[in-house]
Design brief:
By secondary structure, this protein is α+β, with helices and mostly antiparallel strands. It is built from 6 helices and 5 strands. The protein has a 5-stranded antiparallel sheet, with helices on both faces. It is globular, with a radius of gyration of 18 Å. InterPro entries: Histidine_triad_HIT (IPR001310), HIT-like (IPR011146), HIT-like_sf (IPR036265).
């Protein structure tokens, strides 16, 4: 990435210590912080310390670190808040610096309702139902294996 893009990245500013964040845990390559727009109390973000827009462009070591720190932060979330589980998902569209969401989730809360609705949509629409056919799944698998 160009230096000016990194300098304008809030996550790079946090890593460098120039922007405030509630740090939870880290290692040499990744950092867990509280999200400033939480979906639930204890909602964390895990970010690589190097500016990389998409997680699939991280090095193998950075991926291992990201998930190691995510696991450690999730264990802390479970101990501190006792949620039903910690939802994990990757984002990067709004802030182009890889980040993983760790959201303490409870039955019936906003994230639980969202994923239940998404699963209902996934299982019910004709367009997505067609993707479940053996032919479609085989074609997708062949394309992925040859990529």
């Amino acid at each position: 990435m160009e230096t000016n893009q990194e300098e304008s990245c809030i996550f790079c500013e946090i890593v460098a210590g120039r922007a405030k964040a509630h740090r939870i845990c880290d290692d040499d390559l990744s950092l867990a912080i509280l999200d400033i727009n939480p979906l639930s109390k204890g909602h964390c973000l895990v970010i690589p310390k190097r500016h990389v827009p998409w997680w699939h462009d991280l090095t193998d070591e950075e991926v291992e670190s990201l998930f190691r720190v995510a696991k450690k932060a999730s264990q802390k979330i479970m101990k501190a808040f006792s949620p039903d589980f910690v939802a994990i998902y990757a984002r990067g569209r709004r802030i182009p610096h890889t980040h993983i969401f760790l959201v303490p989730t409870y039955g019936g809360d906003v994230l639980d309702r969202f994923f239940n609705a998404l699963e209902g949509f996934q299982e019910a629409t004709a367009e997505l139902t067609n993707l479940k056919s053996d032919e479609e799944l085989g074609e997708a698998a062949d394309l992925l294996r040859s990529a």
